[in-house]
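User: Can you recover a sequence for this backbone? Please restate the input before giving your answer.

Assistant: Of course. Working from this structure:
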């Protein structure tokens, strides 16, 4: 069997330097070599269409020969929205962490100039970005067993109940309290890695 590949997609105003992304990178690096997946944590472009196209291009070049069960998209917040779109297109697995369900609506309050929380880079959110997000929308997931949803009921930015309803039938973990950032996410990484096929107890497709 080929080495599993995981693509981690960060959220809005975030980067590969985010706390969750770095926890994930370090957890993967700490695995024994025979259990360690190939991990790709790209910086995502601001324009949604460009971000999705760039990740899709990497998957086609670097993971196109893999069986769908050997590729897992892990997405946080807006990255969860992208992960769902890509999983449906590729037939891959996806792990969603406090995912955005309707970013084309929820992000409208951020229109205008914004700062990346980790790099300090300034960028502009425009109406065209919302149109791009709406255009790639997945109306309903297929084969829910390919999905693993993790949400916190204390998420202050997104309604966790929308995610639970959208990913009905998927593997789901609803943790009480917490927040959108999920600062103690390290405790959940072993379950994510098992779902991605790393180690014993991997999820069936």
């Amino acid at each position: 069997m080929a080495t599993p590949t995981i693509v981690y997609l960060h959220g809005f105003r975030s980067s590969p330097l985010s706390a969750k992304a770095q926890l994930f990178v370090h957890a993967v690096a700490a695995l024994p070599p025979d259990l360690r997946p190939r991990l790709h944590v790209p910086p995502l472009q601001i324009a949604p269409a460009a971000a999705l196209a760039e990740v899709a291009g990497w998957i086609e070049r670097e993971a196109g020969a893999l069986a769908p069960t050997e590729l897992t998209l892990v997405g946080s917040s807006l990255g969860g929205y992208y992960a769902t779109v890509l999983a449906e297109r590729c037939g891959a697995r996806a792990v969603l962490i406090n995912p955005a369900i309707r970013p084309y609506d929820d992000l409208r309050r951020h229109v205008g100039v914004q700062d990346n929380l980790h790099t300090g880079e300034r960028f502009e959110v425009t109406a065209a970005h919302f149109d791009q997000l709406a255009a790639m929308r997945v109306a309903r997931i297929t084969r829910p067993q390919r999905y693993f949803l993790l949400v916190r009921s204390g998420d202050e930015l997104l309604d966790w109940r929308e995610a639970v309803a959208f990913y009905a039938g998927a593997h789901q973990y609803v943790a009480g309290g917490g927040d959108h950032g999920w600062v103690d996410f390290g405790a959940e990484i072993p379950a994510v890695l098992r779902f991605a096929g790393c180690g014993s107890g991997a999820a069936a497709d």
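That completes the design. The beta strands are 5-9, 38-40, 71-76, 93-97, 112-115, 122-125, 147-152, 171-175.
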